[in-house]
Amino acid sequence: MPRRTIVNEVPMFITTNVKKRRPFFARDGFAKEAIDHLYRVQLFHPFFIYGFVIMPDHCHFLLKVCAPETICRIMDIYKGGLAHQIGIGPIWQPRYHLEFIYNLPGALNYIHMNPVKGGLCKKPEDYPWSSASGKWDVTSFDEFSWL
Fold first, then answer.
1. pLDDT tens digit string along 44-94?
2. Does CATH number 3.30.70.1290 belong to domain 11-140?
3. What is the side-by-side strand order in the sheet with 58-65?
4. CA 135 from chain center: how many Å?
5. CA-to-CA separations, 33 to 4, 53, 82, in angstroms, rounded
6. What are phi and psi of 49, to 5 degrees?
7. Are 104 and 50 spatial neighbours (Cβ–Cβ below 8 Å)?
8. 12, 71 Cβ separation under 8 angstroms
């Protein structure tokens, strides 16, 4: 099956799963490191972060990658580096799911509601490993125009 061409400069909704859906990120230290590592990758491979959630067995990101970077490179660096940082070997399923997003508020709502639907909290802002908590620096998508 041919791979699709990845386009930069548009918001992307990315989901990546832990191998065998094991709940590695149920451990607070691993969940925090997943977020800290996302920001470290951003320092060296710039992209905009509009929102995210680190669930026990998967992660959702709402990003926009700026050329010359690619989402493939960023996800390879993120997934490989995080597995190395937490020191438990290969933890990820080999691929990730990507959708181009033109309804950012809808996608961000889906991301933020994920822990509520998963029974991990009552309100999105109560889940500490999400951009909904207000603890993490994200880009306001109101500031940017891409259409």
1. 999 999 999 999 999 999 999 988 899 999 999 999 999 998 888 789 999
2. yes
3. 47-54, 58-65, 11-17, 97-100
4. 15
5. 31, 13, 8
6. -110, 115
7. yes
8. yes
